[in-house]
Design brief:
Radius of gyration: 22 Å
Mean pLDDT: 93
Number of domains: 1
Strand order of the largest sheet: 1-2
Low-confidence stretches: 363-373
Order of helices and strands: HHHHHHHHHHEHHHEH
């Protein structure tokens, strides 16, 4: 089924009414924020710290346990640490950096100052993600998250013979996703092509390099050294934990953005785009995951990617309730609400990666356009 048949074309009046209903839902939710939301994020903050401590203790202790216990203890420690990093990255860091909890006035949870346990700096993330991605979601030439400069995922993106290796690039990118995000704002292509001098590149990349160095020293030097003879066990466990986090984050993000029926848009949509048009673009360019509270928690509530794109600064623990109303609003206006299991959504992502490794012409695929006014 093409995206043409998924969404009913709305006239100008319908678009503005659609936007007004989304605005009203946001206003009701924000007015209702309070102690339960503050308690929730503080519990997440504690859970991150406690699980990190538990994972690291298990990794350090594994070498000293009786014979036969080393691998099980180290494996468990790596998994727990990986889960802690996922929670820190997705439900805590990502959402706090969006400013979702600024209203609390808690110095530890201020979006402009929060720093997370990841190779990339929060400052770079605020530029590439909070501003560019969320402002220009799925707009070609504006949203750098469309393939992250690594993958061709839509026919509008230029094909090159090097794209034939894309399935391999995708696997490497998943394993090293943390580092791909870390260098995204550096735009290394400009430096490699000579458009940016070595001196300029050093100035631009200096904060990011400092953060990368800090993460490398912490996970691959300090904590392994603290384990003494268990150095290699802790080193390997930390590496496994970081890879677990990268693969999971990659999977969740790609499921939310690159399934079969998500739409992309030409720059021309921005010329006369109202807030209501922007809302429609978010709905049409996003996809959700089913799975209930457990999947909501471990995806940082990005299982509700549609709601996150509509309300990026609203506490993510509210998305599940908001999703019920968003789905109803979409149904009333004939807009396809894209949701499915992780298996279903990620299989579509895999197909997109494979399909667009080969030449594909936009002429044979409907070019997404601004909703009609």
């Amino acid at each position: 089924m093409s995206t043409t048949s998924l969404h009913r074309t709305l006239n100008a009046e319908e678009i503005e009414r659609f936007g007004a209903e989304i605005d009203a839902l946001r206003a009701r939710t924000v007015a209702d924020l309070g102690e339960s939301d503050a308690r929730y994020i503080r519990r997440i903050y504690k859970a991150v710290r406690y699980t990190e401590a538990l994972g690291r203790v298990l990794l350090m202790a594994a070498f000293f346990l009786p014979e036969g216990w080393l691998f099980p203890a180290a494996a468990l420690g790596a998994v727990i640490l990986g889960m802690s990093k996922i929670l820190d990255n997705m439900e805590l860091g990502h959402n706090v950096i969006h400013g979702q909890y600024d209203w609390m006035g808690d110095a530890h949870l201020q979006g402009k100052h929060f720093e997370w346990d990841i190779a990339g700096t929060s400052d770079n993330w605020r530029k590439t993600h909070n501003f560019r991605h969320h402002t220009y979601t799925n707009v070609h030439g504006m949203d750098e998250d469309l393939g992250y400069g690594v993958l061709r995922l839509f026919p509008e993106q230029k094909w090159h013979p090097a794209r034939l290796g894309q399935p391999i690039y995708a696997i490497i990118f998943a394993l090293l996703f943390e580092w791909g995000v870390a260098i995204q704002d550096l735009r290394l292509g400009r430096w490699l092509s000579g458009r940016v001098s070595n001196k300029q590149m050093y100035r631009i990349s200096h904060p990011a390099l400092l953060k990368m160095r800090r993460q490398i020293i912490k996970d691959y030097v300090v904590f392994p050294l603290l384990a003494g003879p268990g150095f290699l066990t802790v080193l390997a466990g930390n590496a496994v934990a970081n890879v677990i986090r990268s693969i999971w984050t990659y999977t969740v993000i790609f499921c939310g953005h690159f399934t079969t029926n998500v739409e992309t848009f030409p720059k021309s949509v921005l010329k006369s785009e109202t807030r209501a048009h922007w809302y429609l673009r978010q709905v049409r360019g996003s996809s959700n995951l089913t799975g209930g509270k457990l999947i909501d928690l471990w995806t940082g509530n990005l299982s509700h990617q549609i709601e996150h794109h509509l309300f990026p600064d609203v506490p993510a623990n509210r998305y599940a309730a908001m999703a019920v109303e968003v789905k109803e609003i979409c149904a009333r206006y004939g807009q396809f609400y894209n949701t499915g299991s992780m298996v279903k959504q990620f299989s579509q992502v895999i197909w997109r990666i494979l399909r667009h490794s080969f030449p594909s012409s936009p002429a044979r695929v409907r070019r997404s356009a601004q909703p009609a006014a």
